[in-house]
Write a structure and sequence with these properties.
With about 450 residues, the chain is mainly alpha-helical. Helix content is about 80%, strand content about 0%. It is globular and about 70 Å long.
């Protein structure tokens, strides 16, 4: 029986996990952060790395350290009913309701739409593109046994080839210095917190919990079955993946910051990257960028459909088969994608503001559970406080026409950092310290 992965096997799984994590959002958000933060680049990037790299790594570590088979088992520490509620909400959010439709719309809005024939209505172009994307995504998703080959060995290397071709050119011939650019908006007054909130949008902390089921099954295909060895391999591949992501985030943000002086501040990161690619490769740049974004989104969408389908088969074994779940989720994503990127983002942000604190508190409790011997009641107290506080951030992030001023006003009065989108942070930290102290006192008495 094997004890550990070979270096080649670790790299293959890490490449697959990187491919699952790294979608278009992982490019467009750091690119815009670079342009907007200007001379505050490094403090903003530090904030982004906390939520964009640190939390996904901790999520993977939580699954490994607790030897959980997936999110369902990990969240079951709070309670059986909660595990169903939280697992369904998280997978539907990063699956067919928000993240997969974003994988359809981001490459279209930021790359493909520029290549459409003149006179073709944008809605028609989106429908045709999303139909093609849907067909390719479903083809790969219906063959989950080969996901490690498709993503780890082919799609991820192809994406990286396009990425580094553009980025190395930009680094060798910078358009300007980020140190002379004035920070814009919130990056001028609070670059660190702005970076933290920008990292939310990648959804990678949620993805770290969601993709655990794929990573663990991939490790087992290489012959490692002992729980402690699977846990060690999960930690190793998670660390390699997150290091690679940190490097690419830094490169993307730096290139974005250096372009500000010559190209100005773009409306979003997709537009910024498209302008950079077109500047360095006139004519060819738009095609290169479109291919890069398409590959980035395709591999993530395949992984999300696979993870969602496998999880729902596990949760509801007497309902639909894997293939039927995959088709259902793909059809849902196809339909939602055609409402447009702006609408998807506006409705996904409030849900993320609710899910992220719940995920962070679960990860924190799981990582320290052995140290403090937390009981189920401790998990329940922590989750209840987190939910009540995060609900305020949910209401605050709703579109302006849907906000209830009485609710947001109440939360604003009672929660510090509420206006910064971090109203949950201090209360949850205080509750964790109290629970940890109580557990340590109980240990000493016993």
């Amino acid at each position: 029986m094997k004890e550990k992965l070979t270096h080649a096997e670790s790299l293959t799984i890490s490449s697959m996990l990187f491919g699952l994590f790294f979608g278009a959002g992982n490019l467009i958000f750091p690119a815009y952060l670079g342009e907007a933060s200007g001379r505050n680049l490094w403090s903003a990037l530090c904030g982004f790395l906390i939520t964009g790299v640190g939390l996904p790594l901790l999520a993977t570590a939580a699954l490994g350290i607790t030897r959980s088979e997936g999110l369902m088992e990990l969240s079951g520490r709070v309670g059986r009913k909660y595990s169903y509620f939280f697992t369904c909400l998280l997978y539907l959010t990063i699956g067919p309701f928000f993240a997969i439709p974003r994988c359809f719309t981001v490459p279209f809005e930021t790359g493909i739409s520029a290549l459409l024939p003149k006179g073709l209505p944008k809605s028609t172009g989106l429908f045709i593109f999303s139909l093609i994307f849907f067909a390719i995504m479903l083809f790969f998703s219906l063959r989950p046994g080969r996901i490690m080959d498709w993503i780890g060995k082919f799609l991820t290397p192809a994406f990286l080839a396009f990425f580094f071709f553009i980025m190395i050119t930009a680094l060798l011939h910078p358009l300007g210095s980020y140190q002379t650019s004035q920070p814009a908006g919130e990056y001028a007054s609070a670059p660190l917190i702005s970076g933290v909130l920008a990292g939310y949008n990648t959804m990678d902390a949620l993805a770290g919990l969601a993709f655990g089921i794929i990573v663990i099954s991939s490790i087992r295909t290489f012959g490692i079955t002992k729980p402690e060895k699977v846990a060690a391999a999960t930690l190793k591949t998670g660390l390699l993946t997150c290091l690679a992501m940190a490097v690419i985030y830094a490169i993307t943000a730096l290139v974005g910051a250096q372009s500000r002086e010559a190209l100005g501040l773009a409306a979003n990161g997709g537009e910024a990257l498209s302008e950079i690619a077109s500047h360095y490769f006139p004519g060819l740049g738009a095609i290169l960028f479109a291919l890069m974004i398409f590959l980035a989104c395709l591999k993530t969408a395949i992984g999300l459909v696979t993870a969602c389908s496998e999880t729902f088969v596990e949760m509801f074994p007497k309902s639909l088969s894997y293939n039927k779940w995959a088709i259902l989720f793909s059809l849902l994503a196809f339909g939602i994608a055609n409402v447009g990127l702006t609408t998807i983002i506006s409705f996904s942000l409030p849900v993320l503001m609710l899910l992220y604190p719940l995920s962070i508190s679960l990860i924190l409790m799981a990582l320290t559970s052995d140290l403090f011997a937390f009981k189920q009641a401790d998990y329940q107290i922590m989750t209840a406080v987190t939910f009540l506080c995060a609900l305020g951030d949910f209401f605050k992030a709703l579109p302006a026409g849907m906000q209830v001023k009485a609710v947001t006003g109440f939360y604003g009065r009672v929660l510090p950092l509420y206006q910064d989108g971090l109203g949950w942070l201090l209360p949850v930290s205080a509750v964790f310290i109290i629970l940890a102290a109580k557990a340590l006192i109980g240990k000493k008495r016993s």
